[in-house]
Amino acid sequence: MTDFPHHAFREYDIRGIAATDITEALAYRLGQAFATMLPANESRPVIVGRDVRLSGPGLQTALIRGLNDAGLHVMDIGIVPTPLAYYAVHQLSAAGSVHVTASHNPSEYNGFKMMIGTSSLHGHDIQRLKELMQQDLRTDKATGSCTPFSITDSYTQFVVNDCPLSRPFKVVIDAGNGPSGMIAAPLYRQLGCEVIELYCEPDGRFPNHHPDPTIAENMVDLANTVRAHKADLGIAFDGDGDRIGIVDEHGTIIWSDMLLLLLSRRLLLEYPGATIISEIKSSQMLYNAIEQAGGKAVMWRTGHSLIKAKMKETGALLAGEMSGHLFFADRFFGFDDAAYAGARIMQMLADTGSTFSELLADVPITVATPEIRIACSDQEKFDVVDQAIIHFKSLGYDIIDIDGMRIRFADGWGLLRASNTQPALVMRFEAPDNKRLDEMRALIESWLDTQ
Fold first, then answer.
1. Catalytically active residues, by annotation
2. pLDDT of residue 2
3. Which residues of the chain have pLDDT under 50?
4. CATH code at 396?
5. What are phi and psi of 98, to 5 degrees?
6. Would you say residue 350 lies in a domain?
7. Residue 402 placed within a domain
8. Are 224 and 212 in contact (CB under 8 A)?
9. 221, 202, 208: which is closest to 101 by C-alpha?
């Protein structure tokens, strides 16, 4: 296969420009290669769905043809958030899933997120898949079939039964014109909520704003609508529904590490001593609060697939990332699902009878930067971080190096790591005040300037 898009095969998924990197020919080969990675004589169906991108139908059709030609049966769940594909695998005991999506990337992108069994494909498995896709995988197996299947009613009923609300909420939801509005709006209404919808019409052009709730400017319409309607909270979803963003009753963004802090405290009342995982970019206040509440806090590498694998390894009941992935394994299946997370967050508010600001009142106030991205080629970025670790360790700094370099100061921390999804370095800092924040930032940035 000429012009093979090696760069599209990332740590957690396959993602690139539709019709250039991500072609229907590539999708067909992916179907065949995915079949090869399944256990021999696998007879269970593969779940296939897609998000709302305009390139999705052609890619999905080609993918299914590749799976069928490899002898596999497919259950086509249509346009749904990625977590519903995960849910379908668990509930139907399927062989795995391939979801056609580029998550929160701009509309011209597309790609694939995959599971074999109930484990997300990542790392070496994605590289193995890439190798197989460049081989001749023609087979003489009998052609498989494709059956349309709706998983939505089953999913909705599961969440309604799992997350009853002791009091109703007025909630604004912003689906960013992705598929989540079709699921979350009726779901939250069944929970008894008054739901005000923003950009819930599926539109693969994403005409209103970029579907990424980790960027503050994408949350402005949601915040304004919450204030205008005097709603209790606002919930935003990314382009494929596995990441959540929250604003409180004042329209203030509650970042994901603080959401995880609150959910952790709640969980530890029921499961004392439980293990809870977050990532290298999260606030130290989160880790301190988990330990103070009697939990075991684990700091791990960034990436939804890596977090899910670590949860299975440690038996953790809850996890979360700054990017808005929240993972529940106490009453759920351990995967990231924004619609379900929204229901759990509302249940927490209902059961405590408190607002976000009241629940966070005892958390020490710190100053933190957002993620700061610095352009750096894929060829250089990991080496730069390795050199930083050597340099700052030689100066005696206390460093966590499980995923880049997190320097621990007595009163805060600074992070430098290589992005897994972009040709960039990522920095983040947390300190007691802006003066100290600037000092921490200058320490790392002045070293970077010499490189």
1. 103
2. 61
3. none
4. 3.30.310.50
5. -130, 120
6. no
7. yes
8. no
9. 202
